[in-house]
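Running this now, will post back.
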Amino acid sequence: MRAWPATVEGLILEQEELARASPPRLRPTGDPAIGGCFVCFARGKTGPGEAGDPGWAGAAVVRRGRVLASAVVTGKAGAAYEPGLLALREGPLLEAAVLELAEGPDVLLVNATGRDHPRGAGLALHLGAVLELPTVGITHRLLVAAGDWPADEHGATSAFHLGGKPVGYWLRTRRGTRPLAVHAAWRTDAEAAVALVGSILGTTRTPEPLRQARQSARTARASSL
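Update: finished.
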């Protein structure tokens, strides 16, 4: 299993290596268990934070709308937030939460980018490599890629690109709301990523596995303060 780099220089080298990797692509099954993971930090602070900030990471696994397992871990941020280097701050916490699950997922949704990254390997991709799990990134904004929003219709999609290649899709989960950015990550390409997330759209804007993980993390934070 890969270890998380502890320095900026080490992380950059790891990201460059991961971007060059060619792991086998995800082969979708008819009824996958889909996981989600999310980390939050103490309220009240502004700016990028710093190493040692207390954090709460939640993870959940959902199949056909039913929660199969959930977990929460507490820990500390490994670094301040810096775009493109999110793995230093959140990576080990998210890994710990997923490993705590009583039942593991077939695919994992991560609140981070994948191929949409200066070196082609954002945290969603990196976490998948560490856990040896196919991953899909879910964010509200792009990091370095570009692409227009889709039509204002439930389920509408439009690609965003980096270096002339599609690295994900905007996905409209509800009319009248900002679309989600669905990112290709570890063992997933842009088309497989958006097809997977589109297949589990419900009535909420956030895909259910990620919503459950976020709720667990925030509930744990609230009860700890």
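The radius of gyration is 16 Å. More later if anyone needs it.
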